[in-house]
Amino acid sequence: MTDALTPARRPGEQALAALGLGAPAPSPADASPHTFPGGGRWRTEVPSVEGPEALGVVLKESSRLDVPIHRISQGSGVWMLTDAEITEMVEATGERDIELCLFTGPRGTWDTGASVRSDSRGAGLRARGHDAVAGCVEDAVRATELGVKCLLVADEGVLWTLHRARVAGIIPADTTLKVSALIGPVNPASYSVYERLGADSVNVPSDLTLNHLTEIRRVSAAPMDMYIEAPDDLGGYVRMYEVAELIRRGAPLYLKFGLSKAPGIYPYGHHLRELTLATAKERVRRGRLALDLLARHGADGEMAPLGSRLPGELSRFETSS
Question: How far apart are CA 190 and CA 51, in angstroms?
Fold first, then answer.
């Protein structure tokens, strides 16, 4: 097992060293000095869990494969779930002390804007106009009233608005706000801005280099989310063999167990049921594979306690309320 400044065993290290192909030792200066509050340098997340039935599959498979889960997230949006479905998900995750994170909507990919379908992708998933922001706030209020404690956002203005809402007591003060990978920052300056706007965890694109993670950690301790295997529409990157080093550089880090080579399922409906359940199950198996690699490399001993969810003290812009 490693600590923050000691690198894990590298893949193939002994065999390559015997052949004269050993890699230089990583610099201790590259390591992130940060941890989650209460200890631990990594947590786990299973994304794209689109409703109670998919959640049941994930919970059953995680028990069978012994995959610890800190957070489960959904991508279709609060508006795609009934009150009864949200309540069922809140109760099932609450029984296991898992954080449930639901996406706020609407967003640019699903409204009338055409620019998102252009080659430049326009404004992407951001909320277009006042009414879209209002819809996101409506989702946030509804979800938190039903017991949801984590909200996923894909717009800087929505993030700042929801942060102000929790400061003002409109939504609970312990609600956590998670930034989507679809607007994830790619440099330390923008990462710091998201933190100050109210982000409690920030999903960075999975193509960031190890040096990029080190640069971010020199300016911010806000928890980072990263797909260890990214969906195809986010690049399809598979970085399992880097997991130990991603943690060393990027802690505190949520390991997101995504799935490449799988069709998109947002917004989810019953017509996508079989695909959604099958991919939910496979995401958990991918998590087991990543955790097995961590164990083989001697880097599995710094997981944050199960049930922990808060980000610790972070830097914020001042609010007017």
Answer: 32
* Two structure tokens written together for 50: 């689109």
Angstrom CA distances, 206 to 147, 227, 256, 310, stand at 30, 6, 10, 23
> What is the DSSP track for 283-313?
HHHHHHHHHHHHHHTT--S-BPPTT-----S
- Burial label for 132, CB within 10 Å (0-12, 13-18, 19+), is buried
- Count Cβ atoms below 10 Å from residue 16 Cβ, excluding itself: 13
Q: Are 2 and 298 in contact (CB under 8 A)?
A: yes
pLDDT score of 271: 93
The DSSP letter of residue 108 is G
Instruction: Give the distance from CA 61 to its chain's centroid.
Output: 20
How many residues are given for the chain?
A: 321
Distance CA 116, CA 279 (A): 26
**What pTM was estimated for this model as a whole?**
0.91
Cα–Cα distance between 145 and 200 in angstroms, integer?
20
Q: Which residues of 252-263 are buried (b: 16+ CB within 10 A; e: fewer)?
A: bbbbbbbbbebe
User: Nearest 10 degrees: CA dihedral of 192, 250, 254, 300?
Assistant: -160
Task: Return the bridge partners of 176, or none.
Answer: 150
Q: Which residues, listed in sequence order, are joined to residue 42 by a DSSP beta bridge?
A: 253, 303
Burial of 231 by CB count in 10 Å (0-12 exposed, 13-18 middle, 19+ buried)? buried
pLDDT for position 223: 98
pLDDT attached to residue 15:
84
| Residue corresponding to tokens 């804007």 | 113
CA 120 centroid distance within chain? 25
Profile the chain (321 residues) by mean pLDDT over runs of 10 residues.
Answer: 58 80 80 94 97 98 98 95 98 98 81 58 72 94 98 96 97 97 93 98 96 97 96 88 94 96 88 95 97 91 95 93 55
